Amino acid sequence: MDLATLIGIVGALIVTVLANIIGGGNPVQLVSSPIPIMLCVIGALLVTAASFPLSVLTGLPKFLGKSFMKSKEDVAHEIETIVKMADKARREGLLALEEDAKKLHEPFLRRGVQLVVDGVDPAQVRSIMEADAHAMAERHHHGISFFEKAGGYAPTMGIIGTVMELIVLMQHLDDPSKLGHGIAAAFLATWWGLGAANFIYMPIAGKLKTNSDEEVTFRKMAKHSDEAARRKNLGSLRQLPVMLRVVLGEAELTLGDVLGLRPGDVIPLDTRTRQELRVCVGDQQRFTGRVGTVGRRLAVQIAGVTAPVAGAD
Hints:
The chain is α+β, with helices and mostly antiparallel strands. The chain has helices at 3-22, 34-49, 54-58, 60-66, 75-92, 98-103, 107-117, 122-170, 179-223, 225-237, 255-259; strands at residues 244-247, 277-281, 284-294, 297-305.
């Protein structure tokens, strides 16, 4: 349980009661009539319910419970976990994360890592996780919005209660003994409207928003963990040696011509003077280049890219 919510609400109520006592009031009078409680607590909830679908109303107990519970996400710990997993993916490959993924306690992160291990396209993984995070944020928004609206309606219901009490009071103006009690009852409804809003509904909405922000932050971080793991794994592949081959040119000869070649013979190639040469990775041409020198060694200057190397960003 998150004691901050309980301490805040109960502490505020205690301070209010003490202030009432110090001012010469009697706290029992604050609950002497059920009418303000009915209007400002139950009435405000019912009016708010008219603005939301039934699915939100059935989820209210869960939202209320979450406002008193501590967020389960330990962001610092999960960041450390993701860094370790990304490093392991770099050293051993993505398949090495399969067992680690099963040990993750957070369902959202576990699902994302499992999708990466299963070889799902990174763009599709990102899309799935973004949709999941968006759905969660929408659910949270409904709960937060409900209690915020209830906090707005409660003072209005209190004013309605005050007006109702004043109407009753106006009917007994001929009896001065009832004026004081009637005015007190009228203002009691106003107090309950303000109290329900500021002691119950708005604090709950605020705590739900705080918890939601933490979870959204965590899911944004988790959403990018698959990309981090993929890039770490790609980083290890970048260290592999790749042989480049520069094709000076080609010539077609008969077998007899080849057998008759002697030192000093000149073979015309199909490459024209100043024509860019083909630079190949394996058997595939990837670049074009120009011959030059670096010190006493021949070199090739890349002039263009004909086909990007797979995995290049």
